[in-house]
Amino acid sequence: MNKYTLKLYITGNTSRSERAVANLRKICEQRLNDSYEMIVIDVLERPQLAEEDRIIATPTLIKELPPPMRRMIGDLSDTEKVLLGLDVPAFTGGLEI
């Protein structure tokens, strides 16, 4: 399995930011095992990184590796869409689809 590099941009300690972090952590732990690096970046503390990555809304998730790079905006509560964006195969009834 490829190692995933994920950057999650948030704005402060808000409920939306906390939901996005929790949702991404849950997805990673359940589906990516130990094959990921999750970096959480608060745009209030590191505005230069947000500017470099052209972040216009938060929360924003950037999947840097494996290619292709993808961006997702929102609290990542729609697990199916997040898995699709990460190119992680979906499982149903124990069978991969």
CATH level 1 class label = Alpha Beta
Instruction: Give the helix proportion (percent range).
Output: 25-40%
The CATH topology annotation reads as Glutaredoxin
- Over all CA atoms, what is the radius of gyration? 13 Å
Provide the succession of SSEs.
EHEHEEHEE
Judged by helices, strands and strand pairing, the structural class is alpha+beta
Q: What composes the largest sheet?
A: 4 strands, mixed
How many extended strands? 6
How would you describe this protein?
The strands form two sheets. A four-stranded mixed beta sheet has the order 2-1-3-4. The two termini are 16 Å apart. The protein has a single domain, classed as Glutaredoxin. The chain is built from three helices and six strands, in the order βαβαββαββ. Helix content is 33%, strand content 29%. The chain is globular. It has 97 residues and is α+β, with helices and mostly antiparallel strands. The longest helix is centred in the N-terminal third of the chain and has 18 residues.
Features:
6 strands, alpha+beta, 97 residues, single chain
Topology:
Blueprint: E1 4-10, H1 15-32, E2 36-42, H2 47-52, E3 60-65, E4 70-73, H3 79-86, E5 91-92, E6 95-96
In a nutshell, what does this entry contain?
This protein has 97 residues and is α+β, with helices and mostly antiparallel strands. The protein has a single domain (4-96), classed as Glutaredoxin.
